[in-house]
Design a protein that fits this description.
The chain has 174 residues and is α/β, with parallel strands linked by helices. It has a single domain (2-41, 55-169), classed as Rossmann fold (3-Layer(aba) Sandwich), CATH 3.40.50. The protein is built from 5 helices and 6 strands, in the order βαβαβαβαββα. The chain has helices at 15-26, 56-66, 84-93, 115-127, 147-169, and strands at 2-7, 32-36, 70-75, 103-109, 131-132, 138-140. Strands 1, 2, 3, 4, 5 and 6 form a 6-stranded parallel sheet that branches. Helix 1 (15-26) links the parallel strand 1 and strand 2 (32-36).
């Protein structure tokens, strides 16, 4: 199982990226989690550039996600929403149908509750027809090393593995 992990924060010491590295260590057997760190290479979304030959960084992101079995997005909350860099990346993926039905887990890591960014991500990804596994999505308000959070993260990864297995064995919608 190939899972692409996306941190919604560009900060070099991001707790979201650290959380995804911990998720990689806790992944169940057979699950490989790869952290994508290419936000800075993506241009601002412009529909005029999203034709037959979109920018190289966009093609690379699309290819990486198309060859994955699932996605984990860990995001902070900025001004009651998701970070602009994350929204920009998602805007580049709207026209790419290879992600329809792709299982995704959202982890909102914010010192406050983070419900606004979490809801915005669910709305955006739902509109894009990604398969958001809401029961496996988490809010992180504790330290990454907290045993309670580690247990919840393991359970989330197990649920994601089950969703991947289910989507791989389910016949396509007709």
């Amino acid at each position: 199982m190939k899972v692409i992990a996306i941190s919604g924060s560009l900060r070099s010491g991001s707790s979201n990226a650290a959380l995804l590295r911990v998720a990689s260590e806790l992944a169940p057997a057979g699950m490989d989690i790869e952290l994508w760190e290419g936000f800075s290479a993506l241009p601002h979304f412009n529909p005029d550039l999203d034709g037959d030959e979109p920018p190289g960084a966009v093609r690379e992101l699309r290819q990486l996600l198309a060859t994955s079995d699932a996605v984990i997005i860990s995001s902070p909350e900025y001004a009651h929403g998701m970070p602009g860099s994350l929204k920009n990346a998602l805007d580049w993926l709207v026209s790419d149908g290879t992600l329809v039905g792709k299982p995704v887990v959202i982890i909102t890591a914010a010192p406050t509750f983070g419900e606004h960014a979490h809801a915005a991500l669910i709305e955006t990804l739902g509109t894009m027809q990604w398969n958001v596994i809401k029961s496996a999505s988490l809010f992180m308000r504790k330290k990454i090393a907290d045993p309670e959070f580690t247990q919840a993260l393991r359970a989330s990864l197990d649920a994601l593995a089950n969703a991947i297995t289910f989507s791989a064995t389910r016949p396509p919608d007709l």
